[in-house]
Amino acid sequence: MTDAPVPAPDASDLAPAWDVVVVGAGVAGLVAARDLVRAGLRVVLVDGRDAPGGAVRGHDVAGLRLDAGAESFATRGGAVAALLGELGLGDDVVTPEPRGAWVHLTSGDGPLPHTGLLGVPAHPLAADVRRTLGAAGAARAALDLVLPAGVGARATTFGALVRARMGDAVADRLVHPVVGGVHAADPDDLATDTVAPGLTAARAAARGPWPEASGRCARPLPRAAPCRGSPAASTGSWTRWSPT
Predict the structure, then answer these.
(1) Beta strands in 36-79 (DSSP E)
(2) b/e code 71-85 from CB counts within 10 Å (16+ = b)
(3) Could you tell me the pTM of the whole model?
(4) What is the Cα–Cα distance from 225 to 27, expressed in whole angstroms?
(5) How many Cα atoms sit within 13 Å of 189 on the Cβ side?
(6) What is the pLDDT of residue 238?
(7) Model confidence pLDDT, tens digit, residues 127-176
(8) What mean pLDDT do residues 1-8 have?
(9) How far is CA 219 from CA 61, 117, 123, 225, in A?
(10) Per-position DSSP letters for 178-200, written without gaps between them
(11) pLDDT at 163
């Protein structure tokens, strides 16, 4: 018995269903897919998660629906606002909450410092800092004001510098949540001048303490507005969700 010959496939059957496959449904992938579709290409968007959004997708914390990543955008230039308008999300933009930000910790919720740099408090003994760190944590942070300038001078990361100058409580309860939200990374893995450009030189000029150094380093922040809504709202008919 001989096997029957297998007919050659028709060339049309080998034609891809898509011109482009975009891997990753974070903001970059969503914008890339949208631009490709607008250019007339057939696009499929795939991601390993069960919903789009990447690092800035929504998630639930203690029963509240929150942004997992950046919760605001700089209004300078208007590019983000224009894109949101094109996507029909303009009405979901709200002004910043005037009461300030809070952090959700396993030890309990507490306010972030009213003044400071990336979670590092400018006034370690302020009421909002004491509430989040506790009396012992705030007292340890206040030691920064009297520590020699050389303490932390050899720290290679922002987290290590904070721990040396102000202690673990500041690093874990204040800095880690803020830097993680802004940079999507652990402050113990990020070089100081990557997180806060100019801070190393400012510390040297200020001879150590954070309040003076952060005052020299900090620049006025651009006006920002948080955006409510998920990037999923912008997918419409131009992507096909294919979680793998």
Answers:
(1) 43-47, 58-61, 64-67, 73-74
(2) bbbeeeeeebbebbe
(3) 0.63
(4) 17
(5) 6
(6) 28
(7) 999 999 999 999 999 999 888 888 888 899 999 999 999 999 999 999 99
(8) 56
(9) 32, 10, 18, 18
(10) HHHHHHSS-GGGS-HHHHSTTHH
(11) 96
Place of tokens 């651009």: 222
Reduced to 3 states (helix: H, G, I; strand: E, B; else coil), residue 222 is: coil
Quickly state the pLDDT bin for 101 (edges 50, 70, 90). Answer: confident
- The HSE-up count of residue 50 (CA atoms within 13 Å, CB side) is 1
d(CA 229, CA 232): 8
38: phi then psi, degrees, rounded to nearest 5: -65, -20
- In angstroms, the Cα distances linking 125 to 52, 101, 131 are 42, 18, 10
- Give 206's pLDDT tier (boundaries 50, 70, 90): low
Residue 52 per-residue DSSP state: S
The partner residues of 118 in beta bridges, in order of sequence, read none
Per-chain mean pLDDT for the chain: 78
Distance CA 49, CA 170 (A): 33
In order of 33, 68, 194, 219, the CA distances from 157 in angstroms are: 36, 24, 9, 21
Helix (H) and strand (E) counts in the chain: 9, 11
